[in-house]
Records
---
Amino acid sequence: MSAQEFTQKAYDYVIIGGGTAGLVLAARLSEDPNVTVGVLEAGANRLGDPLIDAPNLFLQLWDKPEYDWSYKTIPQKGTLDRVHGWARGKVLGGSSAINYNMFSMASRQDLDNWAELGNRGWGFNDLAPYYRKFETYNPPSKILSSKINDKYVDPLLRGTNGPIQISFCEADFQWQQEAWPETCMNAGYPMPKDPRSGSALGGFNQLTTVDPKTLTRSYAARNYYEPNKDRPNLSVLTEALVAKIVLEKGSTGEAKATGVQFIKDGATHTVSANKEVIVSGGVVNSPQILELSGIGGADVLQKAGVEVVVDNANVGENLNDHSATGVVVGVKDEYPTAEVLLRNPEIAQQAMEGYLTHKAGPFTNAPTTTGFASLKMVDPELDAESHINALVSEYQKAHPDADPAGRAPLLAKQLLDPNEAAGQIVLLGVGADIEKSHTASELFIHQAPGNWITIGVCSTRSFSRGSIHIESSDPTKYPVIDPAYFSHPLDLDLASRSIMHVLTLTKYEPLASKLRKDENGDLVMAPFWTKGVPKTLEEAKELASANTVTEYHPVGTCTMLPKEKGGVVDSECKVYGTSNVRVVDASIFPTHVQGNIVSLVYAVAEKAADVIKGKTANGVNGTH
């Protein structure tokens, strides 16, 4: 539809952002035929695009303006002043359209932290029904089951009729999928349990967001929007960049949203909102939109030339991301890795034809090999309690105002819990050149001869916190992104211990005999890291500083907390100082959670839809 057609209607709910969360809300709110819903999305509708649909072509989407915002951070002191490219979906479906398709689960304590911090109704038991609501679990065939070892999955904990399809790939199988779980078991890892049980320790193949019937990506546009697109009470306008929420001060002193101003085809338009405006722009766009609208810290807004409507300096703060450190090691020639496709256009073309014609081959198979390790598993010799507490209290003394919510003691306690993961390990069948961190699409393109794997050492709950703020009132100008990687000493410490730990994993079969060794029997490290295999914690810290990137899981910039503890929204997702503006997306996560976050974004959006409908009483274990 045109902008004129869109604005001729007035909507009960105007949703800013047709991404992962926004399309869940649009589908659920428009279930009521008496409610009208309008969605504004900056990207295009690319349903049916084979680059999105193919589960393992996501790198082809990054840094292309028709799919990706292609954000950049400011130089990061903790990573040798490198700039980091942040791929974020600029397309209908948001980042669920361009992510790795990896599917994790927050731990019980991850979500109980939210409730402990003052968000009644957002604990593990409250969100469990919503995880089941959004998904359909597709069990593998007996043949695949024997290869990938899916015994840890408990079908009784999984959803059976939700929109998002999750599965293991039947159309392609890679050697590391068989080698990884056995290697972890031989290294002494516990037998994994279904992460839905509340804990996810061990090494296993995790599920992916792929529909096994069509072998296509299962994402918000395909599974929440497309089945409902013909509802007369749902309108979606794509390629529409939101400029600001139109606010007026009510008699109570609270700001009331009356509509949303947006730009399409070079012209500015305004659409009316009768009930609410819901911001689902994601971790970068949501705080940007609030600040452009006059909701934010007075200092930030005045510098950017924006009139202050609601003064809340918490907007854009509390940015928290997962870091991923790449340990890149050589693999023997007989074990194929993605370098084969990257270096040989003919083979890549054959693989593409195999996908398009037969839905077969490597482009059907998204990454699955992952593991979660507790601090006790990572470093059994460490006197963990005194070490962690010393680093946390030292940082808090130096930065007394950094943690008004009291997150650090909660996270420190969680680190010491033997059932909680201190880190995630992701094995990727391709080498990564981390020096290219500024351009996300080039990370896995390199000239090092031979085959390589990258063992990614990823944080689960970083202590470092940064910010995202506007510098201009111009909505086309990107905000300043500062994730502050490794600004908290505990993050670098944990990364270095995790590096030393994964190096011990490479000594266990069946992985060990597949890796190349040099004349001294050491692993062959990729040539872009010239200092060899780290032998000490200090050397591992050097590797971490030089070889860390984002895991593309930023959260927290419109955090759900009591306002005095740093909050932007309350436990009903309502923005403080407004009567009818909410934020629903990963920006409201008050603390980080382990693993890939798309599953939690779906669950949070499902619950938020019920909150908006008045169907759930917060604090009553997800009953509705």
---
Amino acid sequence: MTPVNSVVIVGGGTAGWLTAGLLAATHSKQGSTGARLSVKVIESDSIHPIGVGEGTWPTMRSTLAKIGIEEAALVQQASATFKQASKFVHWHTEGQRTGYYHPFSAPQGSASVDITPYWLHNDSLNEYASDVCFQPSLCEQGLAPKLKADSKQSFSANYGYHLDAGKFINVIREHCKKVLGVEHIIDDVTDVATDDAGIKHVVTKNNDHIRGDIFVDCTGFSARLIEKALDVPMEDASSVLFSDSALVHQIAYSDEHQPIACHTLSTAQEAGWIWDIGLQNRRGTGYVYSSEFQSDDEATQTFMAYLKSINPNEELPSTFRKINYKTGYRKRFWEKNCVAIGLSSGFLEPLEASSLMLIEQSAIQLAEQLPAYTQVMPHVASRFNRALTNKWQSTIEFLKLHYVLSNRNEDFWLANRSPQSIPQRLASLLEEWQYRPILDSDFTDTDEVFSAQSYRYILYGMSHKTNLSQYVRSMSEYEGADKQLQLNKALIAQLKARLPSHRGLIDTMLNKH
């Protein structure tokens, strides 16, 4: 039996260094042979990461805890702020309501009763997330998700992070090198040698041949190992998600004391949507659009109009940095002894922070199920491929949900509602949900990425027209549900009185007070 003692990660960036950190931290002890797992990262200093993944899920907190990186380091070194939700504006308009929230915290009392059907049955209620969860009110008021920087406290809303992608990579890189013993090789890969087992070695400009038991392809869109060397094709998903371009820009706050949004803002446009992420000293923005429905010049004008609306005094460039991409994922993420993580594994628009989430999911599964011996690698690879394929497919379905529910009438949005572009499982569930609420049992696969609760926030945030005439036969918790709705109102009032502002908590963590 040949033990797996070394992993070579080709490419740095968020994918490369998160993977390195999880592998090194998970396998930090010596094996029976006396050897620790060797983790090497080969990173070119002439290739720069795309660096637009600046929003995370709450799972990033536990991921970084596994690696050993403290939250204070993110705030102090990566311009991090707290993310409590995503807010969708102009995706669906109904009367005076133009936006809704997808918060990270569950509805009030969800551990004991799902109050959704009772909310649906009550015509006097307003926006779903705001009625069933305290968190949208915190976002609207610009409040922090917790009382103070100390993690040991009685209350903390569920939260992820907004962070500067370039600085975030630096934080992980330095921690991996100094604390976890990851070997950092700054060099350019000039050739990739293959054999029957997969990647035999990589040839670099200054370090000759570098061998490993497993190679991780984090080379981004170039997919140097998984595609160019091992010829694993992509599964095209552009017939479901139409966007293929993004314009990006970083814009300053109008003044240094401006409140920091603690939610990602996603504003629908004629042929796509604009993300807007609040960091400590700037906002990261980008326009995701379909070149089939809007020219680059038109997209530039759309993006510029948005930027002028948030800071009229900033001098804007005549053109913006552009990213072209094709939506899809690898037919196999793990091929022989090579695993693709990050952009080399595929790309989906960054709606709902899906890109960083899929990096996390991939790296965690690799670290947890790293094969002990090369002989059992095919079994692990098969399981990994099934799980990741399911995760990518379920993510695509969830992102498509946002488009399917829109009532916008531009060509891009009308095309997104065409039946042939909607995945079959999603179409079937949408038909069922016309007559009953979303149930937890609709999503029982262990590889599901988004829970029933996330689907509820989007479906009922967009529109809550559900015919419950038959479902009411199973509803018997009216009093308990009403109690939870009232408790949510009380909790909102309490938190508004107690929580600091988002910028105030960040300033405290930066020792500005």
---
Amino acid sequence: MNIQELVIGEVKKAVKKNIDDGIFPQADIPEIKLEVPPQKEYGDFATNFAMQSARVFHMAPKRIAEELIKQIGPEYLAKTEIAGPGFINFYLKPDIIYKELADIIEKKDKYGDLSDNGIKIQVEYVSANPTGPLHVGHGRGAAFGSALVNLLRAAGYQVESEYYINDAGNQIDNLAASVNARYLELLGKASELPENGYHGHDIIETAQRIIDKSGSEYLALPDIERIILFKEVALKEKLEVLKEDLDSFNVHFDVWFSERTLHPEAVKSACNVLLKNKAMYEKDGAKWLRSTDYGDDKDRVVIRDNGVPTYLAADIAYHKDKYERGFDRLINIWGADHHGYVCRVKAAMDALGFDSSKLEVLLLQMVSLYRNGELVKMSKRTGQSVTLAELIEEVGTDAARYFFIMRSLDSQLDFDLDLAKSESNENPVYYIQYAYARICSIFRQTAEAGIVQENNVRLDLLTDETETALIKKIMAYPDEIQLAARDYAPHRIANFLHDFAADFHSFYNKCRIIGVDAPLAQSRLALCGAAKNIIHHALDILGVSSPEKM
């Protein structure tokens, strides 16, 4: 248990004692949060709990704070003070800081990994139709989703990541028909793209590869047979390219789930349950979900009047399968344009007898690319949407991932291509990686100077304000992991890491290692080692590399 948790525990005990003594009324206690004050004179930690609970306890914040600090006085606190309208500031004894740092150093690169909490979570993300290359919007979802998986695992959750392959339905039929049209066109035959076909240059490339491999031999096949053949060829190729793009973006899935496996049996089984539960009815030859019974604005068609399932039918069967796999929580990351779809899927889960609150849908807002201050709408290469592969080629995986993650998922993102490529302190990912490279450089230089790291060092020699600020930031890391995981907010780790790099650079600029007394040099080396582990651990969560030289 870290210091923050201990302090929060003390506040909880004080609240309970005041309730038991009748000073505070019985009530649902708001969440107790700690923050690190921006100025040293306001203590090591502070809480605004007294102000947050004023309405609950029907008391003035200052009175609540006064009653709380009467009950708070553990041995690791030097003092507790009330500030302003009701803030409670906590001042740690110096020795507890050094004891905590010693424990952190002992944990090495495992510091930041929280205990297994036994909660099983599935995270499904990207799940783009395999009909063309991934674009930058998919890239944001891929970066966020993979970082969320890493974050939840660090926070002690048992996480399985999944990609849902939309390999059935009209979009795949249109893909095959589009490849067929381009195939015929390249061989000089009359052809026309289907109305809802795909016009990307990648379709022409797929058709050309078929010709390069097999020439015109497929012209002899009837159209239907040729299109069926091209469907499998194109789907396999698109999936391979998609997996290569994701792999180069440090995105890896535990499960690739094929929509085809749902048709027809899983869809039929889900519909039978809905019919049995009277949650589905027939009208005008179609089968409808009574989604209005669960808060939707209208009922939805599940099976069309021609007997063909809608996309919703497959999604119902798919989510039924997810629930039956025994996860405690299901997280879907969808584009913001799917916001209206959330209610109907949740309605179907409730209608099937599942708890729809276990399904959480996170909506991904749009990405806008800017170069030289101007909006980039199209790829220079193809005249179409900028692909993820093109973005990686221009700014690199590390910058692309960090820039996608550093903003909250529910905010629109303006991606500055020039900033992402710059090697300056204004580029946040460069600034962070430079801090890591600096630490690696320190260890190389001290080794060359004959300074050998020792195990037992005097951590209480770390008294400079930049040293204590860095120690406190290190101490705050597990709490940041916990809170970021709770809120599904990997951007908190990105922001924490940027602040942490700033604290390290301040320490580096003020505190020498070579040329100072040996005990102090050893203490500062130990602090550098702990800082190095923090940066590496957090960059791993973000899926960003930790370069030893820059």
---
Amino acid sequence: MAEIKNPNQGKGGTSNTSFLVMMVVMLGVFAGLQFYRSKQKQPLQPPTAQTQSQQSAPISAPTGSKASFNANAVKAPAASAAADAIAASAEQTTTIENELYKITFSNRGAEVRSWILKKFKSRYGGPLDLVNAAASKEYGFPLSLYTYDAGMTRGLRTALFVPSVTGNLTSPQTLTFRYHQGNVDVTKTFHFDSTYVVKAESTVKVDDAPVRALLSWPAGFGDQEQVGDYNSSRINTMRNGKSEGLEFKKVTGGETLNAPLQYAATDDAYFVAAFLPDNPGSATAVTLHNTIDVNKLMKDGKVSGKPVDVPVVGVALGDTDGTTSTRVYVGPKSAEVLKAIPVSGSSDTLEPLLDFGFWGPIAKFLFWFLNWIHDHIASNWGWAIVALTVVVNLVLLPFRFQSLKSGLKMQRIQPQMDAIKAKYAKYKVTDPKRADMNAEIMALQKDNGVNMLGGCVPTLLTFPLLFAMLGMLPKVVELREAHWFWLHDLTAADPYHILPIVMVLSQFLTQFYMPAPGMDPQQQKMMAFMMPVFSGFITWNYSSGLALYWCVGNLMMVAAQLAMNQTKEGREMRELAAKRARRKVGSPQAKTIQGKR
């Protein structure tokens, strides 16, 4: 077996420049990502119950209308025929639930105060409420109405509607809210069934003329319990069958997106609120971008009191004719669920909302395979990741053996390459004669069937898979709260850092046992020690699912390398390395860390 720092590859060794560049690029990407995540991943205070009572404000008709009205003017508890007004005298709630959710509406604004997903829990172990209490109190609750007149928007959010039913109800159910005051008339109707989808209809009229009022999800999600969670917020749209995601930094508050529009959604890493208009050809949307101040939550659970500005993005959808009719999906970004929800006027579904980034096509295939393993082989997601890793490494095994053979060819011609380099050693690097040296080396390699990139093939195949897993595993809602031994959430970091430690040890063994013919000794030493430490750093605060995938892969690589070292090619490579080491005894390059069989 070749050494980690091979004394026979000293000055005469060929610098595997392409391999080094590839490693530097990988390290740079990992370093930047981990630094950004570690800097942003600061816990916040757990959501608190929002105050339902708010001060009412006048609802003003849009500019150019003939009148406005005051939401407090009517005190009757129900419709008053004499006053021709419909308004409630006090705030009250109506709760609708099925097996998937429990939604609580307030008649103040006919808005949602709580949207609990029953199959999920918060990071604190309690019910998962997707309503962001702090942000909603400041910028509007889900399914509130957004108009282009700020005064009217505020008034609609504080008006006391009259609900068709109250109390605790189960789906299927229809809930209608009515409000009529002066020359303004508002109706909001919601239909509930056994799925995550709610059908919504709303109409706002001033002087019997429809006003463009959009249903909105204005301000983030209730699962955004850490600063980093807000940074995963996006606005997603589908226009003319083409889906597009917009990160929170690029979202412009108040920007109108014109028709055609198959859907408009706001989401984070795991959940989404998507509006699917019945008439995409006349649907419009408005993007919303605000910020809120929250307090840091220290590691010991105490609030530091230091303000932190975090972004909250939202979206509103309506129709150019003034009457909004849309389906609203509020739930997990589960591939199985999303692909079952069609968009109007198209064969597309909501599946594009599950976006795994640049390596998305590879990541989606890996997730499909991971999901298949979970459904048919291993019912535990942790074991499914282990099984996926085993399969991936078995597929890569032939390429690793080819890499060994390529390294052997390189070792065989290494003395001749050393001789060529010695012949041109007297010339400076900038001397044109150096081109002749490179030409001779390339001719020698060609005559002996040596491919300089042959040894990099396994790495070239492994890196895209690793980056795909890097983008996929932290975003799969199925892995949220998934258990595996001491791990209680495969999308979160290992709480005891066991996997990162195993990562360091297994990465060192991988470098220790793997031959690197032709690599410069200093580069080889750097890779032998820097890569394990850096791999541990990457996985220290990242998804434990990724650390599990990486650790199992490294252990399999060590086992495969040990087996290959016992083959004819492996034995010959060790003999060549030992022979060259004997020739250079006494050289400063001979002081090396010896590789093992």
